[in-house]
Amino acid sequence: MDVYEIITWCKEKNGALENVVVLSNVPLDITDTVIYRVLDTVKGTGKTKVHGRCSDKAGREQFVLVEISKRVSEISFPVFIGIPDEVGPWSTQVLSVTSISSGSSKGEEFHTKLMSFLKKEGKSLADIQDVASPALTLNTELVSTINSLVQKCQTASPVEAQNYRKLRTFSGLTPTPNGEEDYEVWAEHTTHILEEWQCSDNVKKQRLVECLRGPAADIVRFAKVENPSATSCDYLKALDTAFGPTENASDLMVKFRNTFQEKGEKLSVYIIKLDKLLHSVLRKGGLKSSELNRLRIEQIIRGLFQMTWWHLG
Question: Are residues 191 and 283 in contact, defined by beta-carbon separation less than 8 angstroms?
């Protein structure tokens, strides 16, 4: 659930933004009594109140809006809460001071900047739609060249050069322990590597489980218990729900569609930037692996149109 959705939900329920916590991955049949028992395991929360519930998009789990008697910034609220061998873990999400102050104004700010840019370029929203919506008639040789360049960029990336037999360790602990990377870096590396491995999904799952520690290992263990036939992609989705960006797949895809090659930016750097966004959408379940190449090429072509606008201007 992203910041804007949480802020809107809080306002609807008359909750204090500085005191709310959103619980994720909560089963639909969990009662308030069980939720309060889990919250009691967190020290320093004081009185707690369940303000509301809403199902996730799949309709299999739910988000729970909880208000505590203290500001969440005053206590060390854990990333996951639960009762071992009984319920959980559930991931938690709190609003920072920065997100609260900026969440209500970012949408208007983006729209203002976009309209200012279009006006300066002598364009309108219709011009963006004309570029984004029609099916592109691409020269076969051009597509082949772009494909070749993409492959070279990916091959040259040190992320892809890692030995497939060992993935980097990830625990999900905060702050990030020495020797580990933050989630975004780890997830990008792991997703790339799993795509490249020429082996069965069972082997991929085994390698993935071997590199996980602490809360991250618990998340995958719970995912496996809930769905014994879960794939390595399902494991990554569970981890992304717990540790990944708050934007949903739709938000990330909009961001991808509005990411263009900047003036003076090398095409290889631009492609890597697009890849990061695409893999974030993939981990959120917003697209299939088979769609990556097509979407990447389409956006590169759109980027070329954007660069043409700049030169004509």
Answer: yes
CB neighbour burial string for 141-166, b if at least 16 within 10 angstroms, e if fewer: eebeebeeebeebbeebebeebeeee
Q: First vs last Cα of the chain: how many Å apart? A: 39
Residue in the structure block whose two tokens are 């991808």: 256
Q: How far apart are CA 280 and CA 106, in angstroms?
A: 21
Contact indicator for 13, 49 with CB cutoff of 8 Å = no
Reading the block at residue 224, the tokens are 């496996």
| Residues whose CB is less than 8 angstroms from the CB of residue 110 and which lie 6 or more positions away in sequence, other chains included | none
**Amino acid of residue 153:** C
Structure tokens at 188: 């990008």
Residues of the chain with CATH 1.10.1200: 165-243
pLDDT digits (tens, 9 = 90+) for 105-160: 444 554 555 556 556 656 665 554 444 444 444 455 555 556 666 655 554 444 43
Please state, in angstroms and rounded to a whole number, the distance separating the CA atoms of residues 193 and 97: 36
Helix ranges, the chain (H): 3-13, 32-39, 97-103, 106-120, 125-132, 140-156, 183-196, 201-210, 214-226, 232-243, 249-257, 267-283, 292-312
Q: Does domain 165-243 have CATH number 1.10.1200?
A: yes
Distance CA 267, CA 223 (A): 39
Integer Cα distance of 297 and 121 in angstroms? 25
Q: Give the largest Cα separation in the chain, rounded.
A: 66
Q: Which CATH class is domain 3-102?
A: alpha beta
- Amino acid 75 reads I
Taking CA atoms, 64 is separated from 8, 24, 53, 162, in Å, by 14, 7, 5, 40
Instruction: Quote the DSSP letter at residue 73.
Output: G
- Does this model's pTM top 0.90? My answer is no
DSSP secondary structure letter of residue 169: P
Question: Residues of CATH 3.30.70 domain(s) within the chain?
Answer: 3-102
